[in-house]
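I am going through a labmate's work and have reached the protein record below. What it holds is a sequence and that sequence's fold in token form. Please read both lines and tell me whether the tokens look consistent with the sequence. Do not assume that whoever made the record got everything right. Thanks in advance; the entry in question is below.
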Amino acid sequence: MTTNGSAASDPEIIAHRGFSGRYPESTHGSYQAAIAYAEEHDLELGLECDVHFSADDQLICLHDLDLDRTSDVTGPAFARTVDELRQVDFGSWFMPDPRPQDRMITTLVELLDMIAAARNRGVRITLNLETKHPNPRGLEVEDRVAELLTERGWAGADSPIRVITFFPDALVKLREVLPQLRRTFLISDLSRAGDGVLPDGVWIVGPDLERVREDPDWVGRMIAAGNQVHVWTVNTPADVRFCLDLGVTGFTTDFPDVVAETLSREGSDIPQYAPRVVSEDSRPGTTHRRY
């Protein structure tokens, strides 16, 4: 067991598939909106994406392996090239009259370009990059991620990228190909880390909020074992306060504005700003969503 996570840590806000509570998830518009929010408020913000392959060997940012839920077509995403996916509308399921950027799927290369451009102008943006499993090409995803990050000089200990996954075999592969990057073990079953011992080299665990509600003391056991706990998906002020009281230090959310404003009001050590007042009634639904 490592204890790298035992030191106190400022809360981390992680924008789940971009600003996905207000824009169509994983689109250019969703990631651009999250970056713009961080820039406007001088906020350190992590983005989150899920990656797997398109038919033409590019890594795309898309939670589902198929297109049914978040687009105007059906079928597997991996059966289409990126050019073909550009013809698909990924926005209208979520909002009326989406802008062009709200319809457009993002490739991992494009997202890394957005992050690099933002960081070059001083925006404190990082990325939680989930390798999606199962997928038709297995651990080739991790190999390609390593290639892309190494090409950019983002494979070292100072990288703005953290790699995350639910799959232990992927964690082993990531340790092999990206040994200096931080890794998070995502879980939807608390028993997978019930004794506080995580896979080798991992000291951040990412549980489902709904499972944490069932056993709140589990968080304390993880922290006592030297780990950090980053919970998904935390979308309401009440959920932020619940997690803070348990010692959670990472908040994956569809609404980074809600989490940032709540942490600010609670006096957590994040950049302070005048909260933008948004009535609860005016917000889109803040229901829990799967990682």
Summary: The mean pLDDT is 92. The beta strands are 12-16, 45-53, 59-61, 106-107, 125-131, 161-165, 183-187, 204-207, 228-232, 250-253. DSSP finds ten helices and ten strands in the chain. The radius of gyration is 18 Å.
